[in-house]
Amino acid sequence: MKRTFLVVITLGLMAMLLIPIAGLGQSVDEKLNSARAKLEQNRAQEQDLSGKVGKLGESIAVLEDEIGGLRDQESTVQNRLDIKIAQLEKLRAELEALQKRLQILRAKLADSQKALSDRLVALYKADEPDALTVVLEADGFNDLLERTAFLERISEQDQEIVTRTGDLKAVVAVEERKVEEIEGRVTETVQQITAQRDQLAATRQRKESVEGDLTSVRQGHKGTLAEVRDDSAGLEDHINDLEAEQAAVQSQLAGTAGTYDPGPIKQGSGQLIWPVNGAVNSPFGQRWGRLHAGIDVNAAEGVPIRAAEAGRVVQAGPYGGYGNYTCIQHAGGLSTCYAHQSSIGVSTGQAIDQGEVIGLVGNTGASFGAHLHFETRVNGTPQDPMGYL
């Protein structure tokens, strides 16, 4: 009796020790898988951001070269502008001189035209005789010579007035064309300089705007990349700590499992071995108005659980009312699942041999006492495990 009592006390103490180990082990597995997945995401994001930052840097470098070239062009154009401005000043001075000369010529033309007009009026009023009348009315040869010379002087004076008037008209027309030509050259030069200056300035401003946008985006990517790298460094440290903790938990789990003798492997008539040796206290089928998708095998808490068949772990973690829950995928669409464990000794993706210890019997989840809930599923559909054991 006393021995039995000591055994019960010992089992209770071991169960108390195993419960925190189970929680710790499962928490470590879950956190480790989550941290590794997050680290992979971070590394992918780092690669993507590094590529974007590199491409933006190349684009910015190209823009900087183009902007530098535009600034050189602007400097060259500015020198040309200075020359053109000096030419414009000279042209304006020449134009001003021509305009003054034109005013003088127009005044002379006006005077010549008035003199010609006055002479024509005078001739009309004087009714001067023609050459035949002068010859006939001359009083001697000397008088004839005097009269002839007088007519010649009158004719020469009239011709001079007419010629000077015509010449002035021609000069005025030429000077007016020069003024119009200079004004056109001045206007065209100003328009060309203004257009070239505005085009260069607009192009440079557009490129500077694009450069500013790209620089802003690159800075944002750099900031995000630095944050991701810091997060990755923290995750790597966290993963190292979790791996060390996982190794310690697995070592403790192995040591605890060694305190129980799981007994000989129990082979039935089916392809699977029994995960634990014990009586079935709840069969497969309807229970409390719903399907009991497996069998409950009686076993003490802490008893090692064996894999019923070789396969690969597809789930290892807490799962609702199942508590700590492990599922192993086998050939032919068959899978076996183990619920209510106090500790899980495997992780998702791990290859398992038949008979390998995968965890310990427990009382986690919707359970009213230590036992193993064991399921068999074909392509995800629950089947009665007794048909496989």
What would a concise description of this structure say?
The protein is of the alpha+beta class and 389 residues long. The chain has helices at residues 2-126, 131-136, 141-257; strands at 280-282, 285-287, 290-292, 295-298, 304-306, 311-318, 324-329, 334-341, 343-344, 351-352, 357-360, 371-378, 381-383.
3D structure, described in words:
- This protein is α+β, with helices and mostly antiparallel strands.
- The chain has two domains: 174 residues, Helix Hairpins (Orthogonal Bundle); 122 residues, Glucose Permease (Domain IIA) (Distorted Sandwich).
- 64% of the residues lie in helices and 15% in strands.
- It has three helices and 13 strands; from the N terminus they run αααβββββββββββββ.
- Strands 1, 4, 6, 7, 8, 10, 12 and 13 form an eight-stranded antiparallel β-sheet that branches. The chain has a three-stranded antiparallel β-sheet with strand order 5-11-9. Strands 2-3 form a two-stranded antiparallel ribbon.
- A hairpin with a 5-residue loop joins strand 6 and strand 7.
- Helix 1 packs antiparallel against helix 3.
- The longest helix has 125 residues.
- It is rod-shaped, with a radius of gyration of 58 Å.
- The protein starts with a helix and ends in a 6-residue tail after the last strand.
- The N terminus is likely disordered.
